[in-house]
Amino acid sequence: IPVFDVYALRKQFPVLEREVKGKPLIYLDNAATSQKPAVVIDALVQYYTGYNANIHRGIHTLAEEATAAFEATRETAKHFIHAAGREEIIFTRGTTEGINLVAYTWGRANVGKGDEIIISAMEHHSNIVPWQILCEEKGAQLKVIPVDDAGELIMEAYEKLLSDKTRLVAITHVSNALGTVNPVKQMIRSAHKAGALVLVDGAQSTVHLDIDVQDMDCDFFVCSAHKLYGPTGVGVLYGKKHVLEAMPVFQGGGEMIKEVTFEKTTYNELPYKYEAGTPNIADTIVFKTALDFIEQTGKEQIRQHEHELLQYATAALETVPGLKIIGRAKEKTSLVSFVIDKVHPQDIGILLDNKGIAVRTGHHCAQPLMQRYGIPGTIRASFAAYNTKEEIDELLLGLEKSIKLLV
Ligand code: PMP
Predict the structure, then answer these.
(1) Is 265 helix (H, G, I), strand (E, B) or coil?
(2) In 3-state terms, what secondary structure has residue 335?
(3) What is the pLDDT of residue 1?
(4) Topology classification of domain 42-295
(5) How do residues 216-227 score in pLDDT, each as one tens digit?
(6) Domain with CATH 3.40.640.10 in the chain
(7) Domain 6-30+298-406 has CATH 3.30.40.10
(8) Which Gene3D superfamilies does its entry note (predicted)?
(9) Annotated catalytic, 365?
(10) Which own/partner contact pairs does 151-157 have at CB distance under 8 Å and 24+ positions apart?
């Protein structure tokens, strides 16, 4: 078992050495994107200096090396989320593209007039808008699972929404605005009983929880590398093989074909059927380095550390007069969203930045959720493996000083 040493871990992240506004950077915006360890940055340079080539087509050495590295990421990603086969791992640009791919292909083939798609009140815009577009086009209806005051989904309401009209349940595993971990396994069981498929948005969960798509039994799972200590511009769409096989193609072009004539084109096998054109080779290759980094650091150790940060931050923030934590679910990842009486979240965000502290303020791409709580937005501090209790102390100090200035 690797020993978890947060101070040693921090040394692996070059950006954590920089200063912002003359103060050491305190990066608490990890739910937006995580920082990258030196191994990931180095791997990117090694690819471009060592074996940059287009993949799958060439027979020369560089092309073979690049192809092998690219496919090695697929294998690692498969293990990371416990998929049954490599053909179930499709590389995308990220979570957003994964969801849109499913909406455009599976959605257009399987959703019709009068059908229903269920989402929840805590979805990120990227798990709302693609379904809205689909529903408008098809005359289908979007149904929304409500959330309670604590930020948990109301399960009785969900069960009532399910019917033989339900084609798909698209649900986030973890809320990016509240940190709530949703009971996806139970929800998937209910959806399947009703004859619906389930897409799980894993953008926030994959870095914090153990993902086992087979145990979960989801039909689709999507995530983004950049929230997993990896590069931007890469994500994974997992789909059950028989579901992906039955789906129409997405983009047309090179790589996704078997044979092209002007009369008829036949399509490539999975996963290439959904990977038209030259993919983001460099970042996909480097994504493996990021996943290996997480495994080597120790998923369980990271989770334990992040849990301690969550407990510590929650207790500390509760002592601030006028501060209210939004999202008090029993099961949460390492994220605290809050509002403060009489101050606008953005003003706090600016004052904290002056102290080198990076938090996210605003609606977190979840405007309907903010409307549910009757607030314009929150201040969100989200923690990664490299954050420390000392940083949370600084956040608290920064908040107290900012409130004094503003109120
Ligand atoms: N869903 C959730 C829950 C998210 O937190 C995010 C990223 N903020 C997304 C979807 C979209 O991910 P990406 O921007 O990487 O496509």
Answers:
(1) strand
(2) strand
(3) 62
(4) Aspartate Aminotransferase; domain 2 (3.40.640)
(5) 999 999 999 999
(6) 42-295
(7) no
(8) Aspartate Aminotransferase, domain 1, Type I PLP-dependent aspartate aminotransferase-like (Major domain)
(9) yes
(10) 151/122, 151/175, 151/178, 151/179, 151/180, 151/326, 151/327, 151/328, 151/329, 152/180, 152/329, 152/330, 153/120, 153/121, 153/122, 153/180, 153/182, 153/183, 153/187, 155/183, 155/186, 155/187
The model carries a pTM of 0.98
| Ligand 1, CB cutoff 6 Å, lining residues | 94-96, 124, 126-127, 172, 176, 201, 203-204, 224, 365
Phi-psi region of 283 (alpha: psi -120 to 50; beta: other; left: phi over 0): alpha
Do residues 202 and 221 lie in contact, with contact meaning Cβ atoms separated by under 8 Å? yes
Residue with CA at minimum distance from ligand 1 atom 4: 203
CA nearest 293: which of 17, 43, 26?
43
Region for residue 158 given its phi and psi (left: phi exceeds 0; alpha: psi -120 to 50; beta: otherwise): alpha
**Residues 6 or more apart whose Cβ sits within 8 Å of residue 7:** 388
Could you tell which of 33, 101, 176, 222 is best to mutate to test the pocket of ligand 1, judged by most ligand atoms within 8 Å of the CB? 176
**CA dihedral (97, 190, 372, 228) positive or negative:** negative
Residue 137, both tokens: 């086009």
Reported as a single tens digit per residue, the pLDDT across 7-65 is 999 999 999 999 999 999 999 999 999 999 999 999 999 999 999 999 998 789 999 99
What one-character DSSP code corresponds to residue 17? G
The count of C-alpha atoms lying within 13 angstroms of the C-alpha of 164, restricted to the half-sphere facing its C-beta, is 0
- CA angle, residues 78, 6, 360, in degrees to nearest 5: 75
Could you tell me where in the chain the CATH 3.90.1150.10 domains are found? 6-30+298-406
